[in-house]
Specification:
Number of helices: 4
Oligomer: single chain
Radius of gyration: 28 Å
Structural class: mainly alpha
Strand content: under 5%
Distance between the termini: 72 Å
Helix content: 25-40%
Order of helices and strands: HHHH
Largest sheet: none
Keywords: Repeat, WD repeat
Length: 99
């Protein structure tokens, strides 16, 4: 115990809670929201140069080879996938109803 008291890092007084506007690089204690922003939000570094479409498509090959979420749910009732056929309409594109 006495050894810890002589160590300046371990015996330093803790920072007081911040009240009011943030100061010294710390933000006010506002509850769960500030906790999430400080701790969890900072862990994920978002690469601004990465295209979101490319980020999703990088898993496309694995999802096709190893279907885990959707395909097993229909394995018994619909072993062969059946998709809706496209309908060709006589109306011009401007008059067609938007889906």
């Amino acid at each position: 115990m006495e050894k810890y008291r002589k160590d300046p890092l371990r015996s330093q007084r803790p920072d007081l809670p911040v009240t009011g506007p943030g100061q010294g690089g710390r933000i006010e204690n506002a509850g769960r929201t500030s906790f999430i922003v400080r701790n969890l939000g900072l862990k994920k570094k978002i690469d601004e140069t990465l295209n979101p479409r490319d980020a999703i498509l990088q898993y496309a090959k694995e999802a096709e080879e190893n279907p885990f979420w959707v395909t097993p749910a229909y394995a018994k009732t619909q072993p062969k996938p059946i998709f809706q056929a496209e309908e060709k309409s006589e109306e011009p594109p401007a008059k067609q109803q938007k889906l």
